[in-house]
Fold this sequence. Notes:
By secondary structure, the protein is an alpha/beta fold. Helix content is 31%, strand content 24%.
Amino acid sequence: MTASLPLPHRQGPPLLSALGLTKTYGTTRALDGVDLSIMPGESVAIMGPSGSGKTTLMHCLSGILVPDDGSVQLAAPGTSPVEITVYGEEERARLRREKLGFVFQEGLLLPELTAQENVALPLMLSGVGRAEAQDRARQWLGALGLDGMHERRLGELSGGQAQRVAIARAQVAEPLVVFADEPTGALDSTTSEQVLTALLDSTTGRGRTLVMVTHDQATADRCSRLVRVQDGRIVADSACGSRRSDGYATAHPAGGAR
Ligand SMILES: Nc1ncnc2c1ncn2[C@@H]1O[C@H](COP(=O)(O)OP(=O)(O)OP(=O)(O)O)[C@@H](O)[C@H]1O
């Protein structure tokens, strides 16, 4: 059960701020004037009925989509905010590659690559040398409990293992925010619990920020905050049970946040 707690007093500037987000598809108003601020270290679950605008909201927050109206600002701690909604396609792609991580229901891993190559790929696309990228990928796979599996291809991994590879890939470039869309939706309940723990430990467990779309109340209950969306609007925004994971030591290969 979700406790409907008020959000705690939040100090400092938000990491992500959305103001007046509006997105229309034909006659469908997918987002209808959404304001949302996300603080560093929060884990935010976005819930709502099918078609309520959850994915559209997450895609606007992460620069996958540009809203018709409104703005999204991203401010790394200690830096001035950048307005990602005015960025062109190429700048948004670079921002997503370098500053944001993504975990989707289907991990979107490339089946012809090994687990290690899949995790190393985003680093190599950002210009990190092959040897270093592979090394960092191997460390992340180890941190997510996949030691000894780095040479396996997707078909040689279970659903839960593949999803942990996807989590490693989303984290390897040390993103400011990890966005997850139903990251455990295709898994059985035990595996789902384990993958969610790995996701929380490796993000908020080390002070990073997680924004997750989910249909599952138990998943949302493990986040620090629950945002409910309906008809393209935020209809509730409250603190959850706030079980912040403490997997810091096990979830980061270097044992510390950047
Ligand atoms: N590319 C698109 N073209 C047309 N309509 C779209 C498009 N994407 C989303 N929509 C519509 O916008 C509304 C919000 O969609 P969105 O995918 O954000 O909802 P959701 O809450 O994530 O739904 P679900 O839980 O079913 O995934 C829906 O009515 C949907 O049909």
